[in-house]
Design goal:
Two copies of one chain form a homodimer. The first copy, chain A, has 434 residues and is an alpha/beta fold. Helices cover 19% and strands 28% of the residues of chain A. In chain A, helix 1 (42-51) packs across helix 6, helix 3 (235-246) runs parallel beside helix 6 and helix 4 (260-270) crosses helix 5 (285-298). Chains A, B: It catalyses: adenylyl-molybdopterin + molybdate = Mo-molybdopterin + AMP + H(+).
């Protein structure tokens, strides 16, 4: 089936010249310009990475399986609600034309026929309760008070016109009405809406397959004996769970070495099942350099100094024959997590065909928040609600993983802001459901 | 494996009397008292249902698989961070005692030895950079400026005391420090914290298996031809997705009939894989009655008039030999969805061992919200954020499924409130991530 194979993307390399005198070296499109300090802005870097990745190919999926996936088609109703015309009041389903004679006077009594009639015969009526479906042929409801019953016939007291006391088919929802649009995520209520409209399959994009590769020779897997100078790998677990939370199918692979040949082998092995590779390390410079050297060997690489704190050093590549996107996260846990939210999350969402922007909300700072001009600062914060108002306090701990676990938001301080005073509103990215 | 079998719960029936002269009929514990209007409050009904259900049995799970699950143990750190003492400054790792002679004067120069030394010999020093792990035996760092190097030896200029310029092992996180507590849900950052502390397995409860059974003879599955008087089943799809969103593993089964024998067969067949059965119907009285008759036949049933709008009629049972909890939702889509959030969601969360209360937030009403005294009103609403403040407007549409799809919150108007004016704060349950 299509989505278990590599989703080949159009290569973004510059096309070979027609008259190939000199062999053109494939390269990434020109990166964005740098700022005065020689840095790339977060917005530019994000846009650049997103320009190098295409959404996965859509395919049809049964409705329930598509829960939490992103729709890649507009969907219109194929049915009317109510599906048939129904009575709004208790009374008699009638043909309005039968109620008057040729002289515009009330006609003769109507014969009451059984509700199971195939089609309402002329000159007859069916007893209906409010909400009942009208028999075919009926086009109005004569309220009970507008007739008297005598010997199985309805004697008319008042007339009604076509459509009176009838809820027409499609009154609540009409065939062709737009139900959901491309880019909508299928939540429970959207799924109910589609099912109720008779739709059992939708075009969505598959969950992106993200391979998280952990390397670094002083790292060991948690649960193993931790020797002198070694530390348990945290980043690949945290980032794997974070990618899962965004909606990816995640595979975590560990190659706890800095040997380029071994790292290269693992990356190459994993490319077949990866829509995106994310590299995490143990945070030492040599860990980082080992991976970058392999990336450069396997594909086209962009190394950038991004005007962001933490997370300045950012490396991205298109790797292997299929140009699989690969994002290398900084080694420090906080930098890695923040970089995930700044860059990996939008990439995963783009693969899913979803909106890539982090839904930012605003919160009142309860303590001063300081930043550096010219850098986007992403501080760890704790958002609380007081009544209808959100507050946020920065959180800072010497133990990086403890700090992350204590936070439930990232405080986003733009490049042009140096300080946010207590009582001022600041932008935050919420990290958990509220 | 344990969690693929039925999780037998302690029966809640009244125990058989020891001298069983008269056969005691098993029955549910006494239900809560009714209010003056003969209704049961939502709080009482919720508490009653929760008292009839026990959390699933916990089992050990590998860390990444436990993402989004609820911890059922307290977890303390098994490691120190940093794991070993490290230098805070560039200088020389030393034994503080070596720095002074018997007369409290600066001692003789220390011999510089290689950093790979097994254990720092007395009278020697190792050159360290800030962040380097100290060799065993060293207990202080002499800053570079406190010594001069001459012929492979450090001549002392100043002394330091034990622990000076050293970040002690466990300074950031100490063995035994509480990392996470029972009841915590494992998010990405919690997983990072545990992994970094060397923990690769946790005790969690399995995802509850929820079987959603759709019945009602005028219902057809979406995608099928919809005949005259038939409607496409929406509720079971919507509720299945809603249960999945809470964290359950969901199986949807349809038996589109009101024949009690057929419904009974399907329910009986499904009990083996159900931690909770949820019944949805097409909303006609006869659909509802058919299921209730089967429930009464299969187990102990509680039928209640709950002081709630919508969703007054609530039926719950403990079904089959294993007393599997079964919740019957009202047939109207809005009533079904609201009842799911009021009662099914807490039951699923209790099975998971999680906090069962809906995390309520407050929002400013932008339009008047009216309710009925004595009833908990759950209106459909749309929450928007203006700066750091949440606003909510009620949404009301003739097409019930359209109304649900347009809403992103339920406005919770307590029994004692008749009206909320524009500008006043009201409690809301958010239905999606913000």
């Amino acid at each position: 089936m299509a989505w278990f194979t590599r989703n080949k993307q159009e290569p973004v390399v510059v096309p070979e010249p027609v008259e190939a005198e000199i062999e053109e070296v494939p390269r990434l499109p020109a990166p964005p310009a740098l700022d005065a300090a020689g840095m790339r802005s977060v917005a530019d870097h994000t846009r650049y990475l997103l320009s190098l990745v295409e959404p996965l190919r859509p395919f049809g999926m049964s409705l329930l399986d598509a829960w939490n996936q992103v729709l890649c088609e507009d969907i219109d109703s194929m049915i009317n609600v109510p599906p048939s015309s129904t009575a709004k009041v208790d009374g008699y389903a009638v043909r309005a034309l039968d109620l008057l004679d040729g002289e515009d006077q009330l006609a003769e009594p109507l014969q009451i026929v059984d509700a199971s009639v195939e089609r309402l015969p002329e000159g007859s009526a069916v007893v209906v309760a409010s909400g009942d479906v009208l028999p075919r042929g009926a086009n109005a409801v004569l309220p009970s008070a507008f007739g008297t019953v005598d010997d199985g016939r309805v004697r008319l007291v008042e007339k009604v016109s076509v459509g009176e006391h009838v809820r027409a088919a499609g009154d609540h929802l009409r065939v062709g009405a737009r139900l959901l649009s491309e880019g909508d995520r299928l939540g429970d209520r959207s799924i109910g809406l589609l099912a109720g409209s008779g739709i059992d399959k939708v075009m969505v994009r598959p969950r992106p397959r993200v391979v998280v590769i952990s390397s670094g020779e002083h790292l060991v897997d948690p649960g193993s004996q931790i020797g002198h100078g070694e530390v348990a790998d945290s980043n690949s677990f945290m980032i794997a769970a974070a990618a899962e939370a965004v909606g990816a199918t995640v595979f975590r692979v560990a190659v706890h070495t800095n040997d380029p040949a071994s790292i290269r082998q693992v990356i190459t092995d994993q490319l077949i099942r990866a829509d995106l590779v994310i590299s995490t390390t143990g945070g030492r410079r040599e860990d980082y350099e080992a991976v970058v050297s392999v990336m450069a060997d396997l594909g086209l690489v962009d190394e950038a100094n991004v005007a962001m704190s933490p997370g300045r050093m950012q490396t991205f590549g298109l790797i292997g024959d299929d140009q699989v996107p690969m994002l290398m996260l900084p080694g420090n846990p906080v930098s890695a997590y923040v970089s995930f939210h700044a860059f990996a999350r939008p990439l995963i969402l783009k693969l899913m065909g979803s909106a890539t922007q982090h839904p930012a909300v605003r919160a009142i700072a309860t303590q001063p928040v300081r930043s550096m001009l010219g850098q986007l600062h992403l501080l760890r914060g704790t958002v609380t609600s007081e009544g209808s108002v959100r507050h946020v306090a920065p959180v800072s701990m010497p133990h990086a993983l403890g700090e992350l676990a204590a936070a439930n938001a990232l405080i986003v301080v733009d490049e042009s802001v140096e300080q946010v005073g207590p009582g001022e509103a600041v932008k935050v990215w919420l990290l958990d459901e509220e």
